[in-house]
Every structure is written in C-alpha cells, then in structure tokens.
Amino acid sequence: GAKRIRAHKVWKHIPKRKIHIAVIDTGLDYSHKDLARAAGAGYNVLHPDSPPHDDNGHGTHIAGTIAANNPESGMTGTAPQTIIHPVKAFDQSGSALISDIVSGIEWCIKNRMDIINMSFGMQRSSPLLREAVRRAARAGIIIVASAGNDGKRRTDYPARYPEVISVGAATRQGKI
Questions:
Q1: What is the 3-state secondary structure (H, E, C) of the chain?
Q2: Mean pLDDT to the nearest integer, 103-110
Q3: pTM value?
Q4: What number of other Cβ atoms are within 10 A of residue 80's Cβ?
Q5: pLDDT in tens, 130-155
Q6: I need a surface site. Which of 16, 56, 99, 121 has the fewest CB within 10 A?
Q7: Which residues pair with 122 in a beta bridge?
C-alpha cells in the first residue's frame, strides 16, 4: 500500500519533529515488532486506569498501516517516522458508544495531537460527535476518517463532516 500510493515521495517534506497521531480504535499491541519505534502513550476510554491494550486487533492493524517501521521484517507504513497514540474507545468486539468516541476526541484535544485517525464509520450523524469533531478542528488537529467499507459512493460519518479528510480504498484497477 505505501509503495502503491508512493508515500516515500512525501517523506522528505515531513517536518523534522515527530508527528503525533491518535488512532481512535480498539487500542494497540505494544509488543508488536513492527510498531516498537512508533508506540506512544495513549488512553483507554473504557478503562481509564488501564493501558489501551488492543484485544481485537483492528487498532494495531490501523497503526501498522500508518506507522509500521521494522527494517528486519521489511514492513513500512505510510508514515513510519510518526508516533502513534492509541485511544481505546472500541471494545473487543469492535463496538463503541458515541460518548466514548467523543471522550477519545477530547483526550486528543487536551493532549495536543497533530492528527486524529478514525477508521470506522456510521450511517447517521450524531450531534455529539459532530461538535467534538468541530472542537478538534478548531484546535488545529487534522482529522482523517474512513469513507466506508461497502464500496458505495456515499461516505460514512464522521468522514462526511467537512472538517474531516475522507479516505477510501481502491482496487489495483482503480475501482472503489
């Protein structure tokens, strides 16, 4: 994926300071070899006194897509020089409450993240989520979200909000 989108061509334009990316998802497997250089402090919305351990795998997968950096295995994400801050708002089955997602966004604002990644989608808008996204954008945070996984041209929320960069996938032939 990183080669296909030619991510390496923009790496030279990235600031010298580390970029901090919050991944609001199921957490992070801190023992994953491909993420050892990228793992930063995070937050567990579901159990605030516990680390944001990934008990589902999706959050770790997304973190790897972004920031994998393991010369031994050859795994490289699209932005391997970044720091991932896992924000666990989703449980082991991959489900979340809007209020937990909003709490995760609030943590990102308070902790001055550069980017928020949200690789999930909903069919309907939520006034609470909408306002949290606005607050994050006003705080100067870049917000990226999944357009959806159903192959349709209609984008999910929160990717549909104007403050959010909506990201989708394409086949090798360039089809949605």
A1: CCCCCCHHHCHHHCCCCCCEEEEEECCECCCCHHHCCCECCCEECCCCCCCCECCCCHHHHHHHHHHCEECCCCEECCCCCCEEEEEECCCCCCCCCHHHHHHHHHHHHHCCCCEEEECCCECCCCHHHHHHHHHHHHCCCEEEEECCCCCCCCCCECCCCCCEEEECCCCCCCCC
A2: 98
A3: 0.93
A4: 21
A5: 999 999 999 999 999 999 876 666 78
A6: 16
A7: 157
Where do we find the tokens 């979340």? 96
**Distance (Å, whole) CA 109 – CA 90:** 19
Q: Structure tokens of 101?
A: 């997602």
User: What pairing do the DSSP bridges indicate for beta strands 75-76 and 69-70?
Assistant: antiparallel
Mean pLDDT value across residues 11-22 = 86
Q: Which residue, 104, 100, 21, is CA-closest to 67?
A: 21
How many residues are there in the chain? 176
Distance CA 62, CA 45 (A): 18
